[in-house]
Amino acid sequence: MGSWCSTRNGGHQPRGHVRGSWNVASVCLIVTVFPIRWEHVFKNWVIPQPSLYDIHHHLKLLVVEDKRKEVVQMVFSSPAGLLEDRRTHTAAKFLMAMLTEGTQDKEKAVITDQLDRCGAMLLGSMTKDRFTLGLKTMPKYFLELLPLFAEVLAKPSLTEEGLARQKKVTQQQLSIAKESPLYLANEKINTLLFGKDHPYSYTMEEEDISSLQASDLRALYEARAWYPGVVALSGKVDKAMIEAIQKSLVNLPSKAKPSFPSPTSQPSQEKRCFIDKEGPQSALFLETEIIELTHPDYFALYILNYLLGGPYLGSRLMGNIREEKGHTYGINSWTHPHSYATILGITAQVKKGFAEETYRAVCSEIKRLQEEPISTEELKTVKENLKSTLRTWCDNKEAIASMFMSYYFLGIDFKRLDQLYKKVEEVTPQELQRVAKEHLDSEKLYCVIVNK
Description:
Layout: E1 40-42, E2 45-47, E3 51-56, E4 59-65, E5 72-79, H1 86-98, H2 108-118, E6 121-126, E7 130-137, H3 139-154, H4 160-177, H5 181-194, H6 206-211, H7 214-224, E8 229-235, H8 239-249, E9 272-275, E10 281-290, H9 298-309, H10 316-324, E11 328-337, E12 342-351, H11 355-371, H12 376-394, H13 397-410, H14 416-426, H15 429-439, E13 446-450
Parallel strand pairs: 4-8, 9-13
Antiparallel strand pairs: 1-2, 3-4, 5-7, 5-8, 6-7, 10-12, 10-13, 11-12
């Protein structure tokens, strides 16, 4: 199912669009809550902090204001718990997409018409760890659409007719996705890294979609949809909106989340995999599990990863593989925290036949980080670019709210963002070299190449 909000490849859906997914993207900025709203200024730029309100015992409201734009975004998110098998994973994906297929009192056409009239988007999705429903609209329509949002959450119809429509759309999307080399590589890399029976390795397959019934969705909805959750509100927010949310959502069902055992990873002994798929380019996908966000060395590793393949043209991988070798238009590395693992990944589409050479070049750059101290001049450039990235990210209040929600679930301390900025200021070449030796190992990278 499609993506609306993502840090890797952004985009938007058409006006009034109700199908697709809401990908609450994760970047490695750590934000958490403090009961009193405040702003901290670092050298003329502002690190926003959300306000926290109670809706009821198991549901919190997080608010990040931005008065500059005529838009409001509201995202409900609740932990999915441990999805036991691939079929349950598929049911969870369909459940969230199906929320917009109609309620017990409103048909899909009525919902679509109201969204179209208000120029709004209502999107449901299932990430690796959470159920999510999001609404985006102009402030003048928010109070009108809030009851619809609450009704979609509390009274979804989940009918066989709606499921049939969603199956058709999803099967078409899946057929198109399987033509993408990066999609195929992403599917395979998680199986190598975690094992085929790990929840993070589950993918949707045709047989699971075909066998799915509306009763499966209703059972999952009753069992999982109401664990302690968060509503993140961002944009041009006012007091009336906050009070209305507290009143409208206070009667949503709630239940305590049971204690789930952490899933057991069974990584493959084989570190590399090749998938045959004809096409004009080859796809390279590398992943490895790294230290958790709370580890004392995490920030230094984050900065090191930014130097290696961060989103700027001066990264080591861009310099080597794009500028010197000309194998790709772009290659980037990223880190992604989940509830049960934190991942470092590297992705690129390269000229056909050059994927293995690109893989060797990545390993060479990692080895170089371990063996050679970063020059003072290069580190200065990295710091300035990273601080600029942080400033830009902090200026996007929708992203701040979404990321805050993610890290709220992970229990990250509210001071972490301050600490990240300070680490960027203070980190030394010697510390980065030590962290590269201790926490960045090319021999632990899992590699998938499509269209070798």
